[in-house]
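Collaboration report, partner site 2.

Our partner group contributed sequences for two proteins of shared interest, and the home lab folded both. The records are reproduced in the order in which they were received, starting with the first partner submission.
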Amino acid sequence: MILKDYIHRPDADPRSEETCAEAATRLRNAFKNNEDVLVLNDIRLPMDEERTLNIDHIVIHSYGITLINSRTIYGKIEVNYRGEWSRNVKGREIAMQNPIEMFKYVSRNLREMLTEQIDALLTRAKGSQKTFENMPIDVLFIQAIKSSIIGTGINQSNIIFVEALTQSINRTFSAYKKREFQMYGGLDTFKISSSDMYAIADCIQGNEIDRSSYPNMDEVAKPGVETAPVATGRRGIVRAHSTLPVKIIKARDIQPSRSKTSAQVPDASHD
């Protein structure tokens, strides 16, 4: 579902704005009818106490959040061994802030912001309260077409072209889902309900949280209401008892066989 549409920014570089518009279009086409995925475009989140950063796209799903930057990586960019970024503009090297480091601060502050309102955002399940400590916050950077990024101080694992955007999100979602259903890997898997997803989306946008308007509210417990915990314990051996009558085989009925180590048991119908 698209909860906040893309907004054109005429002040941005045409190449970055074109990439951002295409990313928003691909997200809309892929998830506009999917109630398990919520998409927000052009959201400002705090980077520190004094500054905010515009997040081009935010994808919220039942296993976490993905922050997407599609307006930064355009032109010719070089990253040196110290992690310092610079962009070549008309033959001149102009220093730029490291977007990866900036998003680390944004991710941390976003987690803290959600944690401050945890009672309103996360419903209790089986009498226990989830936390945002284990919630994955993934970050993707989209590289504009005909742009290049070079240097030894960059890890390009989370830098993709716009054509791979939705595939990357679906692949990440599938990986978390697979982890949930694994025998041991799913023990610490973070997962939230659809109602909680909408509550988180409203919190990020600065809207009032109104659970009565969210889908699937009946499937989860209301915030602050505890339910009886499910009894758990160690795995043990289950002893099954048969209701059939016990048939006793007498020693005189056992006939020796050709093998010295085996014996034949006569059919019970001869008793």
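Second partner submission, folded after the first:
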Amino acid sequence: MTDTIALTGIVATTPRHLVTSSGLAITSFRLACRQRRYDRVKNAWVDADTNWYTVSSFRQLAHNVERSVHKGEPVLVTGRLRIRDWENEDRTGTSVEVEADAVGHNLAWGTTALMRTTAPSAAEQRDADPAGGATGGATGGTAGGTAGEATAAPAEPDAAPAEPDTGQGESETRSA
């Protein structure tokens, strides 16, 4: 059974983009989803636990995520949840991964502009990687933007971001 999940959080790492030798594009990043709640005793919003996810995207979505999503930006992610136990010689743990179906900026924090893209042809992919092999690392975008790029509006330099109104929870007014 596959579990579908929707998450809102902050991109915690620079997205890592690679293209496999078979031509499959993959972009992944870590997502920090911080829990916040209103504490009536303190009369303030307080931080609770942070959940961490590895988000992976494939094919055209991977290309678009590479061009559009950057460390520190608030995003929404929907996809299939995968929870796996792992162990190596020293430690054991559990990894929580999301295979993304959709990734977008959280518009409660800023604005974006959508630019439609088309899938690159096989010839365009060969021209981008003349060796025809895998490429790795964060390749970044080009100056001036790239088709498919959607960037969040810059934050005011000295202003702390206000908590977005999600329409859930208490109805008390929050102050900055």
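Feedback sent to the partner group on the second submission included the following. The beta strands are 3-11, 16-19, 25-39, 44-58, 74-87, 92-105. The chain has a mean pLDDT of 75.
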